[in-house]
Design a protein that fits this description.
- The complex is a heterodimer of chains A (about 110) and B (about 110).
- Chain A is mostly beta strands and about 110 residues long.
- Chain A contains no helices and eleven strands.
- In chain A, strands 2, 4, 5, 9, 10 and 11 form a six-stranded mixed beta sheet that branches. In chain A, strands 1-3-8-7-6 form a five-stranded antiparallel beta sheet, with no helix packed on it.
- The radius of gyration of chain A is 14 Å and the shape is globular.
- In chain B, strands 2, 4, 5, 6, 9, 10 and 11 form a seven-stranded mixed beta sheet that branches.
- Classes of the chains: A mainly beta (about 110), B mainly beta (about 110).
Chain lengths: ~110, ~110
């Protein structure tokens, strides 16, 4: 079993829809959970960050972590065409100067006007 | 503010040729990373440098070498390029002390090996 599993999609939704993106993981030592957004032909950029379990909201974006189920989610409300991108989940065990992220393979999202 | 700058942006090589990908960051970050991104494989860590003067292998180091030239610069060298090294390469950096996970990525270097 891979450490991080992410449905690659593609996912196509109409403008204004609620989008749900998900990842599962197998390493119970993961403590830090992130979502990166990657536009076509660009590098990834950090979108959301959560530590341990719980929810975090930032505008139209909500990140959820359920450590008991080893499952993380990113919700996008009122989706916009500008949200069209690949979304990568990422996680790591601990901070400090020597940490390494494990990435999911990414989900390609298209929001249609 | 430039962030992470990679050169070149595009390169075509023949099998067996060598080349170096350059990366520089202007954010005074301690840690720097080289990833490759392939369709269906996601981002895979090649090498990283936790701090100036140190380098370590990542998940897929074979066929690559790195040099942490100074705090700003981290280069990736392909000594004898192979078609399997056709990929998009990303350099990233982070302050490396908070564990927040915020890697700052460059825009990528697209390499084709014929």
């Amino acid at each position: 079993q891979k450490e991080v599993e992410q449905d690659p999609g593609p996912l196509s939704v109409p403008e204004g829809a609620i989008v749900s993106l998900n990842c599962t993981y197998s390493n119970s030592a993961f403590q830090y959970f992130m979502w990166y957004r990657q536009y076509s032909r660009k590098g990834p950029e950090l979108l959301m960050y959560t530590y341990s379990s719980g929810n975090k909201e930032d505008g139209r974006f909500t990140a959820q972590v359920d450590k008991s189920s080893k499952y993380i989610s990113l919700f996008i409300r009122d989706s916009q065409p500008s949200d069209s991108a690949t979304y990568l989940c990422a996680m790591c065990q601990s901070g400090g100067s020597n940490y390494k992220l494990t990435f999911g393979k990414g989900t390609l999202l298209t929001v249609n006007p | 503010n430039a962030g992470v700058t990679q050169t070149p942006k595009f390169q075509v090589l023949k099998t067996g040729q060598s080349m170096t990908l350059q990366c520089a960051q202007d954010m005074n970050h301690n840690s720097m990373y080289w990833y490759r991104q392939d369709p269906g494989m996601g981002l895979r860590l090649i090498y990283y440098s936790a701090s100036e003067g140190t380098t370590d292998k990542g998940e897929v180091p074979n066929g690559y070498n790195v040099s942490r030239l100074n705090k700003r610069e981290f280069s990736l060298r392909l000594e004898s390029a192979a078609p399997s090294q056709t990929s998009v390469y990303f350099c990233a950096s982070t302050a490396g002390t908070s564990g927040r996970g915020e890697l700052f990525f460059g825009e990528g270097s697209r390499l084709t090996v014929l």
